[in-house]
Amino acid sequence: MNLFITKEERSALKRLMPMLEVNKVQFALAVLLGALGLGASIGLGATAAWLIARASQMPPVLYLTVATVGVRFFGVSKAVLRYVQRLSSHNVAMYGIADLRENVYKMLSTRKTDVITRLKRGELLERTGADVDALGDLLVKSILPAWVAGVAGLGTVIGIAFLSPAAAIILAIMLLLSGVVGPLFTAKSARIAQLADERARTELATQALTLTDNYAELAVSGRISTLRASIRNTEEELTVARDQAARPAAIAAAIDALAMGLAVAGAMLVGIPEVHLGLVSAVALSVLVLTPLSSFEGTAELGPAAVQLIRSARAAVRIDEILSAEEEPSSSSLPETTTHVLRAENLSVGWPGGPVVATGINLELRPGTSLALVGPSGIGKSTILFTLAGMLPPREGRVTIDGVDVYGANREEFGGRVSLTAEDAHIFATSVFENIRVAGPHVTREDAYQLLERAGLGEWAANLPEGLDTVLGSGGTTVSGGERRRLLLARALAAPAPLLLTDEPGEHVDNETADKLIRDLLRISDRDRAVLVVTHRLTPLDGADEVLVLSAKRGEPAIISARGKHSELINSSDHYRWALQREGAQEDM
User: What is d(CA 386, CA 365) in angstroms, rounded to the nearest whole number?
Assistant: First the structure.
C-alpha cells in the first residue's frame, strides 16, 4: 500500500480506518469466500483442461466421470460463492460506512467550528457525504480484492508447484507483474485524474447548491446565465477528468493480458521439455498451460482497486482536515448552578480570516428575560449570534456561560445550556415527530403535540393526514414558510437548554406571520427559559424585555447604538422610530 499512496494519505487512513469499526471476523469471512470463489474459477479451468486433454486419449468413459462432476461442481460453486461473498462484503461495508458517518458527525459536534465555517456549504456536504462513501468503498473495492487475489494467487502457485516448480515460478512472476506493476502504473496515472476530479466535484456541488438555494436572488440580479455557464464548464472538466481516469484502467488491462500471455508461453517453454523427460505427463501439461487463463481473474481486479485506493486516500485526507484541525482541545467543564447566565463583555466579532464586523457588544441573557437584537441585513447580527453560541471565537472581549469562556467550554455541557436555531436550520425528510426529536430524544408523542401547540401549530398538527407520522419533504418543501418556522420553534423548545438563541425566525414569510411568530417566541421566556431573537423586524418587539439596536457608519464595525424597551426606544431614538414608521408605511401600501 505504501507504494501507491503518500505519507499524508497513509496517516489519514491510519487515523480514520478505526472509525469504520470493521468486524474483523466478517471481513475475514468475506476474504475466505472471495478466495474460494476465485479458487472455484481456477479449479474449473484446471479441471476442464485436464478433462479435454484426457478425453482426447479416448479412455473408458468411467475414467472421466469424476472430472465431469468436478466441472459441474466448480461451475456451480463459482456463482454461489461469489454471490455469498458479495453479500458478506457489502454487509461489512455498509455497516462500516454507517459507523464512519456516525463517528464523523459525533466528532464534528464536539469540535470548534471556525475551521468548518471556512468551507463552502457544498464543500462541507461533499466531505461528509461523498468522501465518507468513498472511504467506505475502500473495503469492498480495494482491500478485499487485494486480499482475495493474494490468497488465491498463492494457492494457485503452490498447486502448480506440485506439477512443475519452474512453471510455478514463472506464474508467480507474471502474477506479480499483473498484480503489482500494472496497478502501480495505474495508481500513478490515476492520481492526476483524481485530483482534477476532486476539484471539479467540489466546485460542482457548491455551484449546484448555490443555484438551488438562491435561484430567486440570482434571477433578480441577472446572474443565472453566468452561473449556469460556470456549471457547464465544471461539468466539462469533470468529464475530462473521468476520461483521464479511464485510461489507466486500460493500461492495467493491457499489462494483465500481457502477463497472462507470458505465463501461458512460459508454461509451454518449460513444460514441453519436462514432458519429453518424463517429469510431467502430457495431460498435466495442458493443466500447466491453461490454468493461468483463470488465475489472472483476481489480478484483473487490482487495477480498479488501485484507483479506488487513491480515491479513498484522498477522501481520507479531506475528512481528516475537518476532524483534526482543532488547535487545542476544548474541555473546560461548566460549574453546577441553578441559574444559567450567558454574558458578552466588550465583544468584537468577525468571521475567520475576515474583518471585525461588530464591536463593543455587551449583553446578558438569563432565564426569565427576552432580548431582541435588531439591525439591517448584513450588519453582523448572525455573526454575533454564532459567537454567542460558541461557533466562532471572539475577536476581542469575551463571551461566558456561567463564568466560563464559551469558546473553550465543554461542548456537550454547553449544548445542554444554550440552544441555537439558525436561519437556515434544516427540516429533515422524515416524520414531524422525528424532526422535533432531533433536539431532544427524550421527547414523547404527547410532548411533541404540546410543543407544536405552544409553537402555534396545534391545529395544523391535528389536521395532518398521518398525524405526527406525516413525512415532510427534505428542507421543508412540503410545508409553508410559516409552518416551517414554527416547526423549528417547536424543535427549539424541545431542546433541554434554558437559553435559546434564534436567528431571523420571521425570514421568508409574510410580515403578519413573521410578527406573530416573533411575538410568540418572545413570550416563551419564563423563570426557566430565556430567548434572544435576532431579527430586522421592529413591529413585534413590544414583547421583548430589551431591544438592542445595531448600526454602523460606512467602513466601520457595527455597534449597539441604542438599547431599551420597545416603547422607550420609540420615544428616545429618532432612527428607531423612523424605521418603525417605515415598516408600517410599507405594510399599508
Answer: 15
What SS3 class is residue 463? coil
CB 56 within 8 A of CB 283: no
Q: Which of 251, 207, 210 is nearest to 230 (CA)?
A: 207
Under 8 Å CB-to-CB from 574, ≥6 apart: which residues? none
Q: What are the grid coordinates assigned to 234, written together?
A: 465544471
User: Coil, helix or strand for 364?
Assistant: strand
Q: Residue 389: what are its φ and ψ, rounded to 5°?
A: -85, 5
- At residue 472, the 3 state secondary structure works out as coil
DSSP state of 542: G
**Which range, 104-118, 132-146, 516-530, has the best average confidence (pLDDT)?**
132-146
pLDDT per residue as tens digits for the range 161-177: 888 899 889 999 998 88
| Burial bucket for residue 192 (CB in 10 Å: 0-12, 13-18, 19+) | middle
**Count of alpha carbons within 13 Å of 183, Cβ hemisphere only?**
27
Measured CA to CA, the distance from residue 497 to residue 367 in angstroms comes to 10
- Are the C-beta atoms of residues 497 and 418 closer than 8 Å to each other? yes
Query: Could you identify the residue written with the cell 456536504?
Result: 125
pLDDT for 220 beyond 80: no
CB 396 within 8 A of CB 347: yes
85 vs 90, 222, 283, 298, CA distance in Å? 8, 54, 33, 14
Q: How many whole angstroms separate alpha carbon 209 and alpha carbon 267?
A: 58
Do the beta carbons of residue 336 and residue 102 sit within 8 Å? no
Strand order in the sheet with 396-401: 358-365, 342-349, 396-401, 404-405
The tens digit of pLDDT for each residue in 366-388 reads 988 999 999 888 888 889 998 99
Residues 6+ apart with CB under 8 A from 296: 174, 175, 178, 256, 259, 260, 263
The secondary element (H helix, E strand) that includes residue 133 is helix 130-138
Of the CA atoms within 13 Å of residue 36, those in its CB half-sphere come to: 17
Model pTM score = 0.64
Phi, psi of 204 (to 5 degrees): -65, -45
Residue at grid coordinates 474541555: 331
Residue 490 CB neighbours (<10 A)? 24
Cα angle: 484, vertex 485, 488; to 5 degrees: 90
Q: Could you give the C-alpha distances from 288 to 12, 19, 44, 162, 495, in angstroms and in order?
A: 44, 45, 14, 11, 71
Which three three-digit cell numbers place residue 545?
424585555
